[in-house]
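Q: My collaborator sent me two sequences in one message, no labels, and asked for predicted structures for both. Can we handle them in order? The first one she listed is below.
A: Yes, handling them in the order given. First sequence, followed by its structure tokens:
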Amino acid sequence: MPSRRTDPLTLEVVELIGSVVARYHEEYEDAAASHQLTGAQARVLNLLSLEPMPMRRIAQQLKCEPSNITGIVDRLESRGLVERRPDPADRRVKLAAPTQEGLQTADRLRESLDFAREPLAGLSAAERAVLRDLLKRMLG
């Protein structure tokens, strides 16, 4: 099978995307730590701040094992940031939901993420819209 060489522009774009992702993860971990959270706990709390959901759906959204989510939710619950409650649509299902303190912590966490705001501030609104649209297209 002949090897397909990737053009230099594509290689550069891939490298830049990798750098952006690495920097985002590093800053996200730092922001989480400043709130005494692990990165995984912060991601779960952020997701739940959008809407309460069952563990299985959290695992699907974050692309990890449900058993990992159970432990993360346990730790967030012990800190008073998350609670488990019955799903009104199906009482057999438990939803993880943020407490008021959890919502406030998620808000503070989002506010402390400077990484995206700082470089994006250098782009015009039109450039940010183009970037958003291109990223959406890449993700399908």
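Q: And the one she listed second?
A: Here it is, processed independently of the first:
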Amino acid sequence: MKYRAVFALMSAVALSACGLNSVPTAEENAKARWADVQNNYQRRADLIPNLVATVKAAGAQEKDILVQVTQARASASQVKVSGDDLTDPTKVAAYERAQAGVTLNLQRLQEAYPELKSQGNYTTLMSQLEGTENRITIARKDYNDAVQAYNTRIRTFPDAIGAKVFYGAKPMTPFAATTPGAEAAPAANFGNTN
């Protein structure tokens, strides 16, 4: 009887060091950070139509580019990735490509209409979009940090044992730049030729 108690205690200690709690905790943290990413993309999707409507009222000449932004946002909101899809690099890449389309159209908006900077509505639009893009960047970084912690946990001893044996854990896919040339900062061009 005494040996059984000692064996049970040693088994409990051994199992606790095998990631029984830490692996699902790290996985849930990564999924929560993914939810933050989606929340910020949703904020952008909700915010853009309202801000664009305000800027549209300021003048008809910007109509085409604003329609493209709205269409890109609508297309991006059609691509969904759940927490369970995070191990599929193709789904994560498709999601990021859809969001990159919105970003590209937002850059076109900024480049195509520098003369609107003096208008209060345009200034508000750009400020809100910049803040939203910053929130998305931070959420994506937090997600990548959580994925790194999870992936490290499921690959290192002793948690790797529990990760494979009890959970069949697979590495999650972090965000990566999908737009060609995204690693280089865009040049600011204000139309000056001097």
